[in-house]
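=== Structure Prediction Worksheet ===
Name of assembly: unnamed complex
Input type: mixed (protein and possibly other molecules)
Chain count: four
Listed entries:
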Amino acid sequence: MAVKEKRVRRKPEEARALILDAAEKSMVADGPAGIRLQDVAKAAGVSHPTILHHFGSREGLVRALNTRTLEDFRAALLANMKATTGNGDDGIALSFAMYRNGLAQRMLWHLQANEDPKGRLDIFDSIVDALHELRKNFARPGHEPDIADTRNVVHMVTVAALGDALIGSRLRQAGEKEREAGAAFEKWFSDLITLFMTAKA
Amino acid sequence: MAVKEKRVRRKPEEARALILDAAEKSMVADGPAGIRLQDVAKAAGVSHPTILHHFGSREGLVRALNTRTLEDFRAALLANMKATTGNGDDGIALSFAMYRNGLAQRMLWHLQANEDPKGRLDIFDSIVDALHELRKNFARPGHEPDIADTRNVVHMVTVAALGDALIGSRLRQAGEKEREAGAAFEKWFSDLITLFMTAKA
DNA sequence: ACAACTACCTACAGTATTGTCAACAGTGAG
DNA sequence: CTCACTGTTGACAATACTGTAGGTAGTTGT
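=== Predicted Assembly ===
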C-alpha cells in the first residue's frame, strides 16, 4: 500500500511560483479559458483548494499569470536593450530569442485581456529612442536620420519576431533543422536591416 | 406576454454556417477552450442540442471550425496571389489585409490543434516559386537571383503580416489613427522590400 | 515546550456544461 | 393529402468545475 507522504509546506512565494509555472503551461497551450484548477493542481502537485488559498479565485490566478507575463516581457526587453552593444546584429537575434518559451503566446493573451493599451507603449517609445540615438552616431555628418524610419524598423522587428515565434517553424522547409533554419533567417533579416540602415544613414 | 415564435427550419448547410459564424467569435476571443455550446447557441439563435445535431459533439464543432479556418486561409492566399500583378506593392498590402477579421488568431489555433505540419507548407512553396519567377524577370541579364532570398522574403512578409495583425495596433503611437498608421507602415515595409529586391536584382 | 499562524488537505455544495431522449413541426416526394 | 424524413426543441442525466468549510500539520517566535 502507498506510503503516506509527509505533507510539504512551502513558503508562499514558492508555492505561488510553483502554481504559476504549472498554470502557465495550460495558458500557453489553451489560453486563459483552458485553465482548469484541477489540472493545474495536479501538474503542480498540490490540491486545487491550495490554488484558491493563494490566489483567491480562478480569476485571481489568471490575473497573476498576466501580471507575471508583463513582468517577464518587460524584463526580456530591458535585458535585450542592455545586451545590445550597438552593431545591431545581436539586437535582432535577441529580439527573436526573447519570445521563446511561449512568451509570444502569453503576451498575446495579456494584450487580449487588458484592453487598456498604455504601459507597454512607453517601453517601445524608449526602444525607438535608444535605437535612434545609435543611428545618429552612424549617420553621415550633417545628416539627421528620420525618426519615422527608426520607428518602423522597431515595429517591423517586433511583429516579425512575434510572428516567427508563433508560426515560423511551420513555414520552414520540410527537411530543415529548426535550429539552423531559424538562425539563418535571423541572420538574413539582420543583414537586410543593416542594408537599409546604411542606405539611409 | 411573449408571442410564441414560429419554429424556423433551415437547410443543413445554412444552419451549420450560422452556428460556425457564432462559434468563430468565441474561438477568436477565447480560443477553442473558450467555446461554450450554450453561448454559441444563444448567439446563433438556436438551442444547444441543435449544435450537437449538426456537429455530433463539441469536439466536432471545433474540428469543423478549424477545417473552415484552413479553407479560408487557403482561399485568402490564392486570391492574394491572383490579385498580385507583379509590381510587388499590392502583394504586401494584400498579405497584411488577408489576416483581418481574426484570421490570424484562427490560423494560430488551427496550427496549434494540428500538429501535422504538412499541407500548408506546399502552399508556401508555390508562393515562393511564383515570386521567384517574378524576380527572374527583373534580374539583370545573366544574373540568377538567389532562391534563398526569395524564401526569406516570403517568410518575412508572412510573419510580419501575422504579427502586425495580432499586435500591430498596440504598438502604434497613442495619437495615431489606426487605419492610416497601419497603411503607412505597410507602405514603408513595401518600399523596404523593393529596395532589397533592386539591390539584389 | 507551547502557542499562534497559516499552508495544506479532504469532503462537500452549488453551478455550469456536455450530451441524450422523446416529441414536435417544417418540407418535399409521391 | 399523406407520409417519411429530419431539423428543432425542452426536459433530463451525468459529469466537470469552482468555491467553501473545517480540520490537520509544518514553522516560527517566545
